[in-house]
Amino acid sequence: QVQLVESGGGLVQAGGSLRLSCEASGRTPLSNYVMGWFRQAPGKERDFVAAISRSGLPTRYADSVKGRFTISRDNAKKTVYLQMNSLNPEDTAAYYCAADRSTNIVPSTRSGEYDYWGQGTQVTVSS
């Protein structure tokens, strides 16, 4: 079991940056989980954003954020980060972190593969 809490969302102008954090709690080391970020805009499906392997390599990104977003993790702090640069209004969504307890070496892009979810943090990008 792991509990996830996101933070760092807010309102930012286009071209700006935000860093999201996902803090995990529980007895299981964070290194036991593949971690991912997903986002969901009103009326739309929950979409994959980024994922990171247990040790930090490899990582995967949605094409829409590649080159702008960076996922990282600090297993000692039990925290996963999503650095978001060059934000645009299309990035506006609720962002969720998720944990996958599977042993797959390649992080999954499918939300159904993830076992635990945070409550989300809102990111709004104004034009």
Topology overview:
Elements: E1 3-7, E2 10-13, E3 18-25, E4 34-40, E5 47-52, E6 59-61, E7 69-74, E8 79-84, E9 93-100, E10 116-117, E11 121-126
Parallel strand pairs: 2-11
Antiparallel strand pairs: 1-3, 3-8, 4-5, 4-9, 5-6, 7-8, 9-10, 9-11
Termini Cα gap: 40 Å
Helix and strand sequence: EEEEEEEEEEE
Q: How does the helix and strand content classify structurally? A: mainly beta
Q: What percent of residues adopt helix (DSSP H or I)?
A: under 10%
Question: C-alpha Rg, in Å?
Answer: 13 Å
If helices are DSSP runs of H or I spanning 4 or more residues, what is the number of helices? Answer: 0
Q: Report the β-strand fraction as a percent range.
A: over 45%
If you had to describe this structure to a student in words, what would you say it looks like?
With 127 residues, this protein is an all-beta fold. It contains no helices and eleven strands. Strands 2, 4, 5, 6, 9, 10 and 11 form a seven-stranded mixed sheet that branches. A four-stranded antiparallel sheet has the order 1-3-8-7, with no helix packed on it. It is globular. The mean pLDDT is 96.
Tell me briefly what this model is.
The protein has 127 residues and is mainly beta.
Essential attributes:
single chain, 127 residues, mainly beta, 7-stranded mixed sheet, 4-stranded antiparallel sheet, globular
